[in-house]
Amino acid sequence: MATVDVRSITGDTVRSVELDESLFGIQPNVPVMHQVVTAQLAARRSGTQSTKTRSEVRGGGAKPWRQKGTGRARQGSTRAPHWAGGGVALGPKPRSYRQKTPKKMIQLALRSALSDRAAEGKVAVVDAWSFTAPRTKDAKAALGALGLDGKVLLVVGRDDEVAYKSFRNLTDVQVLMVGELNAYDVLCNDWVVFTEETLPTQAADKADKADTADTADTADTADKVEEQT
């Protein structure tokens, strides 16, 4: 099982922690990563492009000239597609580019991306971002002390508001909340940095799912009791 050093913001090694083999030690599935990333990028497209058909273009209600006797080709409207100022034939209309991707495939892509970064030694763990106040200068100094160069992906907890504000203005740093981690952002960055609190483990994921299920069961039971009363 792979281990990684837990360091402080000054770069000192505090302890070592074992990375979950099921999340950081699998064989990366490149086709699945490609499909999930493609679907994620497709979902970002706004799909608002639109052209007008001949029925939507203003004008063209009258026949340009009579059917016979002019020597010219017969025409029914000046807004046909082959006329200047006419409608567009088979042009784009507003649509959604979203693709249906199974949850298990999304999870496999994320685990593959994390395993790829772990195999390259590009996963770092910090004990905590112990900044007293939001300050970009302190954040930049911490990255230098940790030896993180290139593009860095920071995964912070929901309560790490000071760390979020400290890192958000740095050009080569992307900050994500712990629930927003995805394969595309992992692959787009050279380093993935966690705190001990946000470091993902299979046991933590199962506990979160169990808590969610218990909450749903409790809500269903409450609803049934209210219906009976």
Evaluate the radius of gyration: 28 Å
The CATH topology of the largest domain, please? Ribosomal Protein L4, Chain: A
Count of individual beta strands: 6
Strand line-up in the sheet with most strands: 2-1-3-6-4-5
Architecture per CATH nomenclature, i.e. the level-2 architecture of the largest domain: 3-Layer(aba) Sandwich
Task: State the order of secondary-structure elements, H for helix, E for strand.
Answer: EEHHHEHEHEHEH
- The helix-and-strand class reads alpha/beta
Fourth-tier CATH superfamily name of the largest domain: Ribosomal protein L4/L1
The tally of domains stands at 2
- Helix tally equals 7
- In percent terms, what proportion of residues is strand? 5-15%
Sheet bearing the most strands, described? 6 strands, mixed
User: What shape does the CA trace take?
Assistant: elongated
Poorly predicted ranges: none
Looking at the chains present, what oligomeric state does this protein adopt?
A: single chain
Distance between the termini: 54 Å
Approximately how much helix is present in the residues? Answer: 25-40%
Report the top-level CATH class of the largest domain.
Alpha Beta
